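Quick entry between incubations.
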Amino acid sequence: MTLLDGTARTIRDEIAAGRVSATDVCRVFLDRIGAVNPALNAFNLVDADRALGRAHDIDRRRRSGDPLGPLAGVPIAVKDNMNVRGLRTTASSRILERFVPPYDATIVTRLEEAGAVIVGKTNCDEFAMGSSSESSAFGPVRNPWALDRIPGGSSGGSAAAVAARCVPVALGSDTGGSIRQPAAFCGVVGLKPTYGRVSRYGLLAFASSLDQIGPFARNVADAALVLSALAGADPRDATTADERVPDFTASLTGDVKGVRIGVPRAFVTEGVDDDVRHAFDRALDALRDAGATLVDVDLPHAKYAIPVYYLIATAEASSNLARYDGVKYGYRSPAAKDEGLKAMYSRTRDEGFGPEVKRRIMLGTYVLSAGYYDAFYLKAQQVRTLLRRDYDQAFKRVDVVAMPTSPTPPFTLGEKTGDPLQMYLADVFTVSANLAGLPGISLPCGFSQDGLPIGFQLMGRMFDEAMLLRVGDAYERVTEWSTKAPSSI
Amino acid sequence: MPTALTIADVERIAALAQLELTDEEKLLFTKQLADILAYAEQVQAIDTSGVPATAHVNAAQRTEREDEPRQSLPVEDAIANAPDAAPEAGLFRVPRVIGG
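Done. Structure below.
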């Protein structure tokens, strides 16, 4: 097995044992990025000097006998909507093309304290708004399994980077499925933690009641390892919870006997691709054979999750993105120089934002405007309560709820860009976890007849990531999907 | 409440959102936003009488701390990314606001 196929855990152990240096590990992955990124466009920025400097520090610590962190020497990529001090954060938008953040996101501080080596910033949908990574101002990301396919979105660069062995692990953000859906489309593991589990300080806000940061990995054990480094309360993010952070790695017992898995059959029948349905059913069979119990559950309001999500997320986005006005940072239109402040604002925003971001700002502004607030925004927030109650009821009877991650395998580039509503419908199975604040994990569970990755999703009770990781790990032990690698690049 | 979206509506929303749209964008958004809103209208048929709104899902939010001064971002760092700044005065510079 080569270093590139190593997991975060094995790489860390090899470095700690002195069998390989962090510097050599870093070079191997940087070379891989250099070789495949021209085809994938997964990275907006790679800083080899910074990464090698950090790797060198790890090697020096090891030689001096200093304690090494749980991710010591592990290369990691960070989605380009999280701040790393001194490295550009663009959110894949023209409006932030030259923005250099003056501070580190809390997750960056925590990763580096754990010894991880940040190699670069990954491409994504502009401001994380999209399901295909095609709305990036810097060109679409391509799926390593089939270069004519999208990798999913919005964290498509992170998912593609992990699938293509550019890094063993990466971070994404998930507002309506932006970690789980690209994980499914790229054949890797993607975990959205509970709302409040991981600090968002230094994450560019999209929809503040929904956004959450989480890991991509090639197996569940690595996802657990990274989550353990990220999780925990942060005084700089008042929405983080004072919940105890368990040792997530310790939850990987391999045992699912007696675990109750809820399946919302009525919800997962409509509009699901045959290959996806087949792979999902086989995943459930494997879990049942491993000792879990399958239980039918009803989520009567889940079918409304898409409209509810797009009403709430766009409303919050229209408010959050008001800060991009050409004054404090980012792009300023030169055209309006002599036409006063208001013209400067509106020209800057028209020239700086791409079409999907403008569409969402418009929709969000509309649903918050006088005369429509009650009928759309308030109504959506009330249905959000009904959806949460559906899950509360389900979790009285089951430990996890299972469904496909996406109703289809990855689609082709350009297939849905002309019809935003069709793009939104691709999020049907992922948005509920964000609306209810629940943790969700996507696991590889097979391939379509065309050889495209398919994933399925487990959702759990609030702050019960340990159960998701336990069931996911047990599933991995009885299947081989997580060992598959794309051969096209 | 059927949604009939006109170009005038789109212009009104764009003004609220501080977005100067091109004529092409106005036409495109009029159609696309009408489609999306027509789809979203299905939520209006759901009975939500007596149901409280969920603004966020935080069980327990820690919103208060001691009111002690803490170190904050130095002014030169805070204005370093500004498209136009007056560093010696520690200020952002903007086009004329009044009478412009």
